[in-house]
Fold these 2 entries.
Entry 1:
Amino acid sequence: MKRARESARRWSRTLAWLPRGLILGALAFAVFGPIANLALWAVAERWYFPYKLPVSYGLRFWYQVFRPSSDALASLGTSVFIALFCVLVCLALAIPAGFALGRCRLPWRGAILVAFLLPQALPSIAVYFNVARIFYAVGLNGTVTGVVLIHAVHGLVFAVWIASAAFAAIDPELELAALNIGATRLRAFLTVTLPLAAPGVTASAIFVFLESLDEFTGTYFVGVPDVTTLPLLMFTASIAGNYQIAAITALVLLVPSVGFMLFIERFLKADVLAKVGS
């Protein structure tokens, strides 16, 4: 009887964990399933119906992507340059805006923060289509400057909100202490406030970089055909049926996203996150 009770308890514990295991398994499949499919396509040299797995494996398409004269390397360089330029533009606007929204008692502060969310709330295709018409009229269509500006519209959402939270999380007494010992407001900002807000500002810069690096729709409407980024190359390859090239470019875009997200985890602390939107 005792063994039967122990066996029944073990079975009950196992059955209790079964729903959790199924949920965790479904989540793992949803996250890692597409990545595994990309990895298979990246090394598949031949894969066609009705085979469930590639017929032959190899790195021939990797050599095509990373050869010196490859369009992929040029597109990657363009994507990185645009993303870095976008970070500079967004930080130049987000640092003063974040300081004002995080440390000053501005009227309509909540409405100003909500206004930065509007580009994310409106249908992006309609917005980009009209922006492309305006840029075409002023000569910015098909230019790197135009692509940077359209990326900055979305990047400012992350930059301003995270920067304002970073500045709001700083104890104002620290800046007052610097003022009391003779520092000017500019010196106190540069030597006390800004270094303390640097982790949050760095995190916002990384978010902007990743947003710009992965942006497709805005680049398509504003940059084509003169500006080709890696997401545009991936789209073109997938439309043409070059799934190996598309999978390799997708994996290349995935690497900085995962790496920077792990890096951001060190900078966005709980006290900063608590101030987001407050």
Entry 2:
Amino acid sequence: MSGPPLPRFVPNPDRPVYGETPRPEWLKVRLVDNEDTRGILDLVRRKHLNTVCQEAQCPNIFECWGRERTATFMLMGDVCTRRCGFCAVTQGIGRPLDPEEPRHVAEAVKELGVRHAVVTSVNRDELPDGGAAHFAATIGAIRAANPGVTVEVLIPDFLGSEAALRTVLEAAPEVLNHNTETVARLYRRVRPDAIYARSLELLARAAAWRDGSAPAMRVKSGLMVGLGEELDEVLATMRDLRAAGTDTLTVGQYLQPHARRLPVERWWTPEEFARLRDEGRAMGFAVVEAGPLVRSSYHARAALGAAGGGDAAAPR
């Protein structure tokens, strides 16, 4: 088949990498090489956009691009100011923001024909608002070009700025997502530039905004496992998230992106993920997506509908 090459990340779960133990059967990923996959790659290139699908080396890239025809757009470049031990994104100081990026994302959403747009970003701690206004502009541009499309944003912590968070909330996304990523004990190793309590505070502020001003908005967070955490620590973190007002949760297996990132400590089994899902539902989460290949935007549109925040059954 002619066309642009496949995304540079091609999952190969059959082959151990960087000295890790062999990956289990349940982490196998089926490669999908079709016109949809190549079409999205071509679209991303033409609009000069970045996707977290590529930059974070998501194992679901072929499922989403090839079958669901969706992509998670990553704002503000492909260089992050933080030094997270798990992330494949390049670390350093990013280039100036592209004022045309919100419009380009909106055009890509329209061309793809999706009904639920997911937008995230690198951390840009050097910016006065951490890029909050850029998020808000992108939400507005998507809405202007795509009436009826719902928008999910996966935001950084903006260094705890309540004003920056308010800027995003006032743009009225249907889903406000901020990943906690791991348990409190591992933050210094896994997220050295983040603070566990600060992430919980952001989620609690978002939940308070939802309860007072936007009852249909969903507040979402995500966790990785396999970095050395214990089951009771994961459950305690889930309880913290629920107490903060989070109503949607994702839990997935960490995969080491390259040799300079943290190794996988353990492969969690499908049965263990099922237990986390059941425990989360018992805690009162409206939606819990838990599984080896689950990521923040996994089945995002369906999850929004299941949580009561959108029409997941509407055709694309």
